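[Q] Does anyone have a clean structure-token version of this?
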Amino acid sequence: MLAPMSKVLDAFWRALGYCLLPRVILLSLLPVLLLGGLAFGLAWFFWEPAIEGVRQFMLDTPLLAPVTEWIDKFTGGVFRSVIGPLIVVVLAVPVMIVASLLLVSVFMGSTVVNLVARRRFETLARQHGGRWWQALWWSLGSTVLALAILVVSLPLWVIPPLALLVPPLVWGWLTYRVMVYDALADHATHDERLAVMRRHRTPLLVIGIVSGYLGAAPSLIWAMGALALPMMPLLIPVFVWLYTLVFVLAALWFTHYSLAALEDLRGMAVSLPAAPDSPSVQNPTSTPIALP
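[A] Here you go.
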């Protein structure tokens, strides 16, 4: 495990350096303009109605109303002012994370791969084992499965340790699925991509989980900023940019590691000795036997 982990760290530092390139910084602004602008518009017009709707739902639901009233009295009226923004944030954050991941994959996936390949893997042949529609189907299928797991695991979020474990693990798994496919789609064949994902599953999952926790970090700022209601529509583009930067770093990280793993895989295939054509091949140095 030490050798793969050292390669994980090597790919991380390389990815961190690539994040400082002006081209990468400029391209990371494109998802911000699209998603940040859309989120800003929705928050500007629907933030207060959404909060009020959540509060009213909590008070009108027979099972939730008594609990809400008791907690509100226990907290001196603070709970009623906080619960609405927190629930809206909890519902909005997964959508924004998934949208940021998909936008980075669509708008920057091929650019990131070409940038890394041109600078570091110029001799690595492109086998074009993935098509754009296959990548889209793979990403959408993985996203639907990840969202289903999140919905099913929602009851576990009331347990503090699991609330800190489950969402980052799901985001990490989703990031691993989407980013590895994008990194290898142009260079690897179908069999090579499966071989890399199988042989390097643990290091790739480690990269995905770390990326998932990095992606969850802005969510903590969301939760703490939920009290600043007037500023939230203005802060949303900032959070979208943070999510975008995390996924750009993850894309570079996965690309560096995956292409290096593909290069090693092909090197191993070339170095393997060729198998004999037939088990009945004779030894050319053997002495012929004279027949009577």
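[Q] Thanks! Anything notable?
[A] Confidence is low (pLDDT under 50) at residues 277-292.
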